[in-house]
Amino acid sequence: MIQRRRNKKVGRIKVKGNHVILSLVCLVLGYLIAFSYHLTQREHMSDTKRLSDQQWEKTLDLRNQLNAQKESNRKLEKELAKKQNMVFENEKDLSKEAQVFYNLAEDAEKYRMFLGKVKVKGRGVKVTLADGAYNPKVVNVNNYLVHEFHVFKVINELYISGAAAIAINGQRLTSHSYINCNGPVITVDGVQHPAPFMITAIGDPDVLTAALNLTGGVKDQLVNDNIVFSLEQENEITLNPILGN
């Protein structure tokens, strides 16, 4: 009995010794694990901090580049605005010059037309003046003939009413034209024309017709002088230029 009790005590002591060793091993292992984890965390934090510093420097550099680019863009925008203003002013000047040249060309065309240097085509009227019917009771034959002053009355009224070009029997008139009467014929710039005299004028047909047909106007005056007066509106009249001087 005594021997068995001793054996039981020895067994308990051995069991307690194993527990102590196991505890020491676990303690050392836990320490190693903790130390390794702590070391790993420090290295990770160091790498993170180093990476974070690099990213910050890179971000700062990119931000500086962006600010520099913005400043450069602002300068370029200001320069572009100045250039655009210069272009705008030049365009205004050119448009004014173009308008001036256009007006000069238009005036030159009008002057050439008035001088009979260019061919003219357009709407207008045709006035025909013919000698009156012979009347044996009239002693003076000139009382029923068309004279230069009759032609002048028609021409002046047409010009006043806006006629752009006029011709007598197809011969263009200019600002220097002259008309003389020699019996039954008239001379226009040295060229003789017998009656009847056809006066063609380019202009607004309605305006020209109304001006000639005014009560007490040119038509009535010519009819009172025994002149045969006829008036027609034309949709297209062509007047050739004067050749030579």
Automatic annotation (TrEMBL):
<keyword id="KW-1133">Transmembrane helix</keyword>
<feature type="transmembrane region" description="Helical">
    <location>
        <begin position="20"/>
        <end position="39"/>
    </location>
</feature>
<feature type="coiled-coil region">
    <location>
        <begin position="59"/>
        <end position="93"/>
    </location>
</feature>
<keyword id="KW-0472">Membrane</keyword>
<dbReference type="Pfam" id="PF05949">
    <property type="entry name" value="DUF881"/>
</dbReference>
<comment type="similarity">
    <text>Belongs to the UPF0749 family.</text>
</comment>
<keyword id="KW-0175">Coiled coil</keyword>
<dbReference type="InterPro" id="IPR010273">
    <property type="entry name" value="DUF881"/>
</dbReference>
<keyword id="KW-0812">Transmembrane</keyword>
<protein>
    <submittedName>
        <fullName>DUF881 domain-containing protein</fullName>
    </submittedName>
</protein>
